């Protein structure tokens, strides 16, 4: 039921995820943060099996942090995404695999480029200009096909994100009410109100 | 729902006159939902050996990393690059290692085999997901559009095509076959390998 969107623009990546934690037909919580800040320039939206999601996200968070402490510099987005993908791919063929889908957004400070990766629980990784997970993908992706512009300013990018969220609110039977939106650019990570 | 058809995608390889070609589509999907239209499935292993990996996308990446490692080890140990035929057996044994919990990939290989007289012989091969090798003299196909590729290739392929004609043949075979398959398509990429160069061409295709 989790919905997450992410899109790149000129020098930034926007990552958005709904904030509801549901169990069966009951909303347990409406302010859950499903976007982890992995490093100063790296974000990860996670969704999937409750329990697995947070467990895996924290595992990733701490390993990325460990790398940073050991090497004094952070992993760049492509390397971080590869490591996370490998963790999921190895987990898939273990006794109890993690069922977690991810959108990894980062800003590479050495090349000054935004990066976005679409990753699913099988360990499928694909660099994408925009991506979505959950029911939101059925409504959002076609809108993003039409309106996404890799050269768009932040405000234009947020407008495109609003279109996606509004469409989900309008058409999805069980649409979530609130979203958390985080942005990563040259200045690092920040959260904004939509 | 078959796991082999979960992400979609197809690869084909053909033999020409002193050249080979290998081509694939560019779609990455989740069943019927399209995720990316730039997902490459063909990777150069050496300058003269190319490997196509259609099947489950997670295993495409895993196997590509695995083969990069094994090929580097081979090159260091032997102090030379691998020959296509040897590489086919490396692919086969790598897959058979996972006989009872396989990678869901049906690899296709194309390359030029070095002869003792200094010339090159075209080589193509494909294996199933547990590594049973199919050495073919004309063309090999794999992926979700394999049945359609067989039909079109059977009609268009002819022996001893020159590199440019081989490119046209493999490109048209792939493009027309994937248009009849919902899980393949969204653009294509063709590699033509000759003794002194390998040409890569990215093709536009129907985006539906």
UniProtKB/TrEMBL annotation, chain A:
Cite the SUPFAM superfamilies for this sequence: N-terminal nucleophile aminohydrolases (Ntn hydrolases)
Q: Sum up the protein's function in the record's words.
A: Component of the proteasome, a multicatalytic proteinase complex which is characterized by its ability to cleave peptides with Arg, Phe, Tyr, Leu, and Glu adjacent to the leaving group at neutral or slightly basic pH. The proteasome has an ATP-dependent proteolytic activity.
Q: Which UniProt keywords apply?
A: Cytoplasm, Nucleus, Proteasome
Question: What top-level branch of life does the organism fall under?
Answer: Eukaryota
Gene3D superfamilies associated with the record: Glutamine Phosphoribosylpyrophosphate, subunit 1, domain 1
Q: Which family does it belong to?
A: Belongs to the peptidase T1B family.
Main location group: cytoplasm
- GO cellular component terms given for this protein: cytoplasm; nucleus; proteasome core complex, beta-subunit complex
Q: Where in the cell is it found?
A: Cytoplasm; Nucleus
Q: What is this protein called?
A: Proteasome subunit beta
Any one Gene Ontology BP term: proteasomal protein catabolic process
Quaternary assembly: Component of the proteasome complex. The 26S proteasome consists of a 20S proteasome core and two 19S regulatory subunits. The 20S proteasome core is composed of 28 subunits that are arranged in four stacked rings, resulting in a barrel-shaped structure. The two end rings are each formed by seven alpha subunits, and the two central rings are each formed by seven beta subunits. The catalytic chamber with the active sites is on the inside of the barrel.
TrEMBL record, chain B:
Record-linked InterPro entries? Ntn_hydrolases_N, Proteasome_beta_3, Proteasome_bsu_CS, Proteasome_sua/b, Proteasome_suB-type
Q: Which PANTHER family match?
A: METALLOPROTEASE TLDD (PTHR32194), PROTEASOME SUBUNIT BETA TYPE-3 (PTHR32194:SF10)
> What biological-process GO terms show up in the record?
proteasome-mediated ubiquitin-dependent protein catabolic process
Instruction: Provide the species name.
Output: Postia placenta MAD-698-R-SB12
Q: What does the record give as the function of this protein?
A: Component of the proteasome, a multicatalytic proteinase complex which is characterized by its ability to cleave peptides with Arg, Phe, Tyr, Leu, and Glu adjacent to the leaving group at neutral or slightly basic pH. The proteasome has an ATP-dependent proteolytic activity.
Q: Which residues form a coiled coil?
A: none
Task: Give the family, as the similarity comment puts it.
Answer: Belongs to the peptidase T1B family.
The highest taxon in the source lineage is Eukaryota
N-terminal signal peptide = none
Keyword Nucleus among UniProt keywords = yes
**GO CC terms:** cytoplasm; nucleus; proteasome core complex, beta-subunit complex
Please provide an example of a Pfam family that matches this protein in its UniProt record.
Proteasome
- Name the major location: cytoplasm
Where, subcellularly, is it found?
Cytoplasm; Nucleus
Q: What CDD domains does its record include?
A: proteasome_beta_type_3
Share what the entry says about its subunit structure, partners included.
Answer: Component of the proteasome complex. The 26S proteasome consists of a 20S proteasome core and two 19S regulatory subunits. The 20S proteasome core is composed of 28 subunits that are arranged in four stacked rings, resulting in a barrel-shaped structure. The two end rings are each formed by seven alpha subunits, and the two central rings are each formed by seven beta subunits. The catalytic chamber with the active sites is on the inside of the barrel.
Keywords attached to this entry: Cytoplasm, Nucleus, Proteasome
Q: What is this protein called?
A: Proteasome subunit beta
